[in-house]
Amino acid sequence: MTDDSVRARRSFLGGALLAGAAALCAGRPGPAQSKDYPAQSKDLLAQSKKYTKERVGYRDEPYEGRSCAKCVLYAGHGECAIVQGEVSANGWCVQWTPATMGSLAGPA
Ligand code: SF4
């Protein structure tokens, strides 16, 4: 193998690696693309990551003294961190988690 053929082969392999890397990068969204969602889309995306009320057995009344108002996941103003849509402060679901450790509400 001559020096010229070795150089030519190295040059070809280097070019092939660059072309492959460029092809991989071309399919990825850049930082500008990933941040260009309108605020309304971000809200919809956040809502879609939450459970539906049906999925968590939500109801608009407390269960054995346990209510959204006493749940650590209740964000106030009818908003829950993990359940879609508006919830009642007097509501309850199976994901209920006491807002304060050691203060489990017993039967009413
Ligand atoms: Fe959300 Fe369920 Fe807690 Fe109510 S009880 S705040 S719906 S997790």
Which class best fits the helix and strand makeup? Answer: mainly alpha
What are the secondary-structure elements, in order, as H or E?
A: HHHEE
Catalogue the ligands.
iron/sulfur cluster
The residue-averaged pLDDT reads 77
Helix and strand arrangement:
Blueprint: H1 3-26, H2 31-34, H3 39-48, E1 74-76, E2 79-80
Antiparallel strand pairs: 1-2
This protein binds iron/sulfur cluster.
3D structure, described in words:
By secondary structure, this protein is mainly alpha-helical. The protein has 3 helices and 2 strands; from the N terminus they run αααββ. The chain has helices at 3-26, 31-34, 39-48; strands at residues 74-76, 79-80. Strands 1-2 form a two-stranded antiparallel sheet. A hairpin with a 2-residue loop joins strand 1 (74-76) and strand 2 (79-80). It is elongated and about 85 Å long. 10% of the residues are buried. Residues 17-27 have low confidence and may be disordered. Bound molecules: iron/sulfur cluster. Iron/sulfur cluster binds next to loops. Iron/sulfur cluster binds at residues 56, 58, 68, 71, 73-74, 80, 82-83, 87, 91-93, 95-96.
